[in-house]
Amino acid sequence: MRPEKDSALKITPYFATLILLGGCSAPSEPKGEQQKTPAAATTATLDFADAKAEESSISETPALRAQVILDHLGFSPGVIDGKEGQSYFAALRGFQTANDLPDTGKLDTTTLAKMEQWQAIPATRVVIIPDAFAAGPFFPDFPADAAEQAKLPMLGYRNVMEALAERFHTTPEAIVAMNSASTPVGAGKAIRVPNIPNPKAGDVGEDPRGWKDTLQRLGVSPEQPKADRVVVDKSEGVLKVFGADDKLIAQFPATMGSSKDP
User: Fold this and answer.
1) What secondary structure does DSSP assign to 86-121, as a single string?
2) N or C: which end of the chain has fewer CB within 10 A?
3) Short-list 171, 173, 142, CA closest to 21
4) What are phi and psi of 113, to 5 degrees?
5) CB count, 10 Å around CB of 35?
6) Distance (Å, whole) CA 156 – CA 108
């Protein structure tokens, strides 16, 4: 989404998909039998309140700050971890194209100048994990075999840490790096995460399958910008969203299928 001229950060929600992240056990969460799916929680109980943050010892690198800004503006860098990779470079090119800048794919001086109005936004925040979010459901013994996965009531996460990483568009490893390996993870605990805000409430109409709950758990607002067309670019590995004026308004990493795995 093209930047606004005011100093507030415009939130263009992240178009996420349910991705199973690599296992990373939560220190405060004992292993046990797989939990049964609870009734869908109200979205209010899934909001992450900000905690009083002590001075952070982590380095908010230019790449980490840029990843957060790009994510907020609808040009997803993929995983927000402060590392430079192909998805990050592609997101920079998308942002540059949308703002009529040279598409270098680099965080150059011209791109930094365009992002200047958001540079005061912290790259991370400290939040309190809501009880409803920490309640799962989780599947500690999540099977590797696809046939066994199909028997589960849903493709969920092994533990709170995996769910937390998906909610804040990062990885368990990145969250550990922002905190420590001994930081407790569970209901009511404070933890530092990428600065992805609570999604704005929106109307999804009749919702028998609980999509609003799912979107809330992914940090995605039901309110999305209207797209005129969507293009999947296999050469770049991205999904591009264009508005009615044929301007690029959003871009996201996309995993392409094959003849073997469509």
Assistant:
1) HHHHHHHHHHHHHTT----SS--HHHHHHHGGGTTS
2) C
3) 171
4) -65, -40
5) 13
6) 39
d(CA 203, CA 207): 10
Using alpha carbons, list the distances in angstroms from residue 171 to 9, 94, 207, 257.
Answer: 24, 23, 29, 23
What percent of the chain is helix, strand and coil (3-state, nearest 5)?
25, 10, 60
pLDDT, greater one: 15 or 197:
197
Number of other residues whose CB lies within 10 A of the CB of residue 73: 27
Comparing CA positions, the residue from 163, 158, 253 lying closest to residue 217 is: 163
Sole residue written with tokens 């150059």: 108
Give the rounded distance of the alpha carbon of 54 from its chain centre.
24
Question: 4 near 225, Cβ under 8 Å?
Answer: no
Can you tell me the mean pLDDT for 234-240?
Answer: 92
In eight-state DSSP terms, residue 54 is P
Band of residue 20 on the pLDDT scale cut at 50, 70, 90: very low
